[in-house]
Amino acid sequence: LCSQFFCEGFLLPCRKWANEHGLAFTGHMDKDNTAMGIMQGGNFHILRSLRCMDIPGIDVIWRHIFPGQPGVTCAATDWPGETATNGFFPRYASSAAAQIGADASVTESMGVYGDGVTYEQMRYVYGFQAIRGVNIFNQMLITYDRRNYMMAGEKPAFREDHACHADLKTFNEYLERLSYVTSVGKRVCDTALYFPVRDIWAGVRAEEIADEFEKVGMALEAKQIDFDILDDDILENAEELKQGEIRIGKACYKRIVLPPCEQLSEQSKANLAVFEANGGVVCTLDEVQSPTVIANGTEKLQLMQRKTETQDIYCLFNGDTKTEECTLDLGGKTGYWINITDGTIEPLTMENGLMKVTLQSGETGAVCITQNEPALK
To answer: Which of 124, 189, 231, 291 has its CA 20 to 30 A from that of 161?
Structure first.
């Protein structure tokens, strides 16, 4: 009821007003970096809330994404509980976008990251989100004034007196390329992880269930599985079940991964049974295999596939703190390597039908399988 009131009494009227005035409605929820945020952040149901927006968003603050090991307290702050979790939470925004039929989701990033944050670290933060489907970047922070107290604000503050201001244009051009490559065509994502909202609402084992959910999501990523997050709202109203698919908006799920949960609704159970009986896959983490396109790679490597009428694009992100090499099996297909960092495009170099890719920490690159050289500006 609280979630329904929040959506119908606040978010949907805001969207209606914005649309009536020629604007798209966007934003993010509080404490959206953790599954328990649906209670602690006051939105009660993050996916339901984000689906009320034209452009669902995520907030990346307090160095919640940062190069390093998850769980290490951020050097920039001693704020209790604020750590570089490097969790999969950007998927809340990209999942909601796909489910409402939108092509874009947005991030507000770098708030309270400190003036000492480097462009290399920022590349990591944005690439981490782009590979998980977020493709519009709202960069904090341009201060409201150059004088008085308003110039303090949050850090970093990208003013003329910032030590790295001269390179801001170059970095913004990189973000343009990153946004373009991770937006072109349609994202290919047929796997969804069930979000046990009802279990968290029940409160009996809320934190334990939320923790298990996040562990399963992290383990899927360690297997290089691209996935969305879905909930009972979608399962209870699912269409195309007799085709072994769950369709909503631009999303089409053929495999549902269930984490430990106890409060799956009866209607969700019934629809999942129909879905599975007609060829859909309902499984646990242990039954999920890594994609065959990655012949060799570390668990820090993330993969996202996009598709147009004439090309397949495989975006890759290195989430490790060191340079990594991986091997791709493209089935003998040819195409181009897109270096998003410097904007260069080169024909693929294959050895015995395989392609070796070297990515620096936080680097995002893409393989484009096509007959014609892709345009990247």
So the answer is: 124
